[in-house]
Amino acid sequence: MKWTNDRSENVDDRRGSGGGGGMLVGGGLGTLIIAAIIFFLGGDPSAILSSGIGSSSQQTEQRDLSADELKVREFVQMITGLTEKTWAKIFQENGMQYTPPKVVLFENATQSGCGAAQAAMGPFYCPADQTIYMDMSFFQELQQRFGAQVTEFSIAYVMAHEIGHHVQTLLGTTQKVNQLRSSGRYSEAEMNRVSVATELQADFYAGVWAKQTDNREKILEPGDIESAMSAAEAVGDDNIQKRSQGYINQEGFTHGSSAQRKEWFMKGYNTGDIRQGDTFNALLR
Q1: Is 123 in contact with 158 (CB distance < 8 Å)?
Q2: What pLDDT does residue 263 have?
Q3: 209: alpha, beta or left, given left = phi > 0 and alpha = psi -120 to 50?
Q4: DSSP 117-184
Q5: What φ, ψ does residue 94 adopt, rounded to 5°?
Q6: Three-state SS across 52-99?
Q7: What is the pLDDT along the chain (285 residues), one digit of tens a residue?
Q8: Which of 68, 83, 113, 250 is most enclosed, with most CB atoms within 10 A?
Q9: What residues have CB less than 8 Å from 197, skipping those under 6 apart?
Q10: Closest Cα partner for 170 from 125, 107, 230, 114?
Q11: What are phi and psi of 134, to 5 degrees?
Q12: Farthest-apart Cα atoms in the chain, separation
């Protein structure tokens, strides 16, 4: 992936600053459920975050960031800047104004608008404070545990997916899904299908971002799209279920299969058109 000179001021790097947070604890079936949730990409983790699971305090000492960590910050600032530029253009073309999210880099634990954020949860978007939280150790887990090919662009894909959830909040999709969930009129299986549609739309938006950004900045290099597809495949529900519990239960899908995640990212990438991303009608009719 080629770097650009874009840098966003909306990145808050909390690494090395010290602080405390809780550690996830659990056992048996609960552990499998939590593991399945926390290693997925995206979604609103407020139900897990605010549940008080694990309240033991862990303090980290203040320290200086290494040269590699500073480079990571620079990369995240660049990707965030590229998303701001692309989505501002897309929104303007559709008669709207884009408000960018904040991005927080942390290690171990920090506080979010959805509760205590922990490293084991992986990157997530919190609608309450319109902020993306990322502990970069997630990408080691993605490679070592789930077999993904981790490159700069696969990290960009993960960030673009999370920013896709921010786009959903700006467009009112997140609020509509929350209303359906709180109405109590739908079964768990039905809400799981809504969740899948929500996550696949975020993948689609990530593909739209990749296409439009590359058209403008020429950021993609050979192998970049393949590495994004490797990450999408690694976090498919079927792949995670098979690795964590040994079998696949489609009714339990909340983010989509590996094939679906790749399909919708590529649809966004191939069309570059935000209007082609109605996953809800495609999956729920």
Answers
A1: yes
A2: 95
A3: alpha
A4: EEGGG-SEEETTTTEEEE-TTHHHHHHHTT-----HHHHHHHHHHHHHHHHHHHHTHHHHHHHHHHH-
A5: -110, 20
A6: CCCCCCEEECCCCCCHHHHHHHHHHHHHHHHHHHHHHHHHHHCCCCCC
A7: 999 999 999 999 999 874 433 333 233 333 333 344 444 444 444 444 444 444 344 445 678 888 888 999 999 999 999 999 999 999 999 999 999 999 999 988 999 999 988 887 888 999 999 999 998 888 877 777 766 777 899 999 999 999 999 999 999 999 999 999 898 888 888 899 999 999 999 999 999 999 999 999 999 999 999 999 888 888 888 877 887 788 888 878 888 899 999 999 999 999 999 999 999 987 665
A8: 83
A9: 279, 280, 282, 283, 284
A10: 125
A11: -140, 120
A12: 53
Sign of dihedral through CA atoms 122, 126, 130, 131?
negative
CA-to-CA dists, residue 277 to 30, 120, 204, angstroms: 34, 30, 6
Residues recorded for the chain? 285
Can you give the residue ranges of every domain in the chain? 11-284
pLDDT score, position 142: 72
Only one residue has tokens 């609020």, namely 175
Residue 107 identity (one-letter amino acid): E
